[in-house]
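thought: user wants a sequence for this fold. calling inverse folding tool.
action: design(structure=
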């Protein structure tokens, strides 16, 4: 029986690293999709919690943390799937309770974004949904199909444009090494198509948006883990990973020279921490990658990598 003076969490919870200091509220559990590399739904049945319970958790948080909460992240893997009325209800309630709240955020699968109309997304933004974390994983349709992403490159482009039109900040992730080491052609396609995807979504103004590359991890129990065990999937090594990233960066070319795309590849899964603004700081980013390729002793060892 849950103690109602404690905020409810269905562990393990899934949140972006940048939301580490946000108030985490369990709006959904698990994920309604099942990508081959992801563990979001391995130990959880997907569900959207009822609004009354979520509001109770917000009440408890108000008592525990006072009125100073500035950021809330609504868990779990794809909380954007929540019906718009429900999502609006909890977001508006959160802003009533926390007058200093600056932003709410969610993970969003591109297909969940596409199911919402422009008006619904605008309403969500106006209510306070300021950032959505979208897993692109790749711009290659071949690879997206291979890992059962259930979204295509064109879905990612349309979803990103819809988010930006509504004013919601886009923070998208891609996965270095997703195609494995068996086939260099797939790695090249992954890098080129991902660069093309990012070029396509670049807005015409100077708003801030985020692109991050994680590096593939193989958590036990995932489909990709099973393939690896059967010898059907071979991981790329650190040099191949950096070479793939290099092709990606070389091919990011924005028409808008004022674009402010904050690029990061400094997650715990990455071999080399890299940060910069695309495409303005391409030269520096490429310099860092080349240094990593030629000085492998500075790369993060595999046993220190994690999700
Ligand atoms: C918890 S998921 C939520 C994303 C959201 N559900 C979507 O699909 O758009 C967050 C991101 O972590 C990354 N990720 C998940 N599993 C990973 C793995 N095994 N290796 C590397 N990155 C991974 C993917 O980029 C994924 O989109
Ligand atoms: S990557 Fe996103 S959509 Fe895919 S299973 Fe994980 S949480 Fe769900």
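)
observation: tool returned 307 residues.
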């Amino acid at each position: 029986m849950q103690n109602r003076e404690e905020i409810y969490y269905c562990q393990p919870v899934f949140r972006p690293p940048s939301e580490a200091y946000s108030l985490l509220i369990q709006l959904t559990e698990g994920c309604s999709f099942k990508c081959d590399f992801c563990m979001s739904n391995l130990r959880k049945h997907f569900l959207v919690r009822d609004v009354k319970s979520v509001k109770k958790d917000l009440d408890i948080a108000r008592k525990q943390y006072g009125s100073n909460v500035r950021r809330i992240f609504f868990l779990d893997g794809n909380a954007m799937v929540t019906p718009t009325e429900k999502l609006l209800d909890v977001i508006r309630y959160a802003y009533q309770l926390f007058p200093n709240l600056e932003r709410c955020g969610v993970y969003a699968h591109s297909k969940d974004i596409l199911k919402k109309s422009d008006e619904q997304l605008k309403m969500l933004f106006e209510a306070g949904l300021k950032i959505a974390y979208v897993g692109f994983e790749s711009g290659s349709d071949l690879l997206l199909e291979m890992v059962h992403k259930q979204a295509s490159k064109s879905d990612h482009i349309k979803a990103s444009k819809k988010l930006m039109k509504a004013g919601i900040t886009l923070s998208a992730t891609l996965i270095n090494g997703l195609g494995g080491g068996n086939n260099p052609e797939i790695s090249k396609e992954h890098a080129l198509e991902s660069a093309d995807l990012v070029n396509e979504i670049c807005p015409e103004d100077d708003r801030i948006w985020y692109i991050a590359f994680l590096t593939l991890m193989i958590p036990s129990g995932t489909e990709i883990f099973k393939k690896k065990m059967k010898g059907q999937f071979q991981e790329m090594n650190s040099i191949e990973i950096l070479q793939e990233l290099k092709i990606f960066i070389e091919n990011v070319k924005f028409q808008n020279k004022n674009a402010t795309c904050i690029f990061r590849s400094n997650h715990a899964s990455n071999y080399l921490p890299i940060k910069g603004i695309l495409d303005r700081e391409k030269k520096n980013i490429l310099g860092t990658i080349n240094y990593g390729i030629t000085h492998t002793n500075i790369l993060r060892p595999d046993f220190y990598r994690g999700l």
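thought: summarizing for user.
answer: Here is the designed sequence. The pocket of iron/sulfur cluster (ligand 2) is lined by residues 31, 33-35, 38, 40-41, 77-78, 109, 135 (CB under 6 Å).
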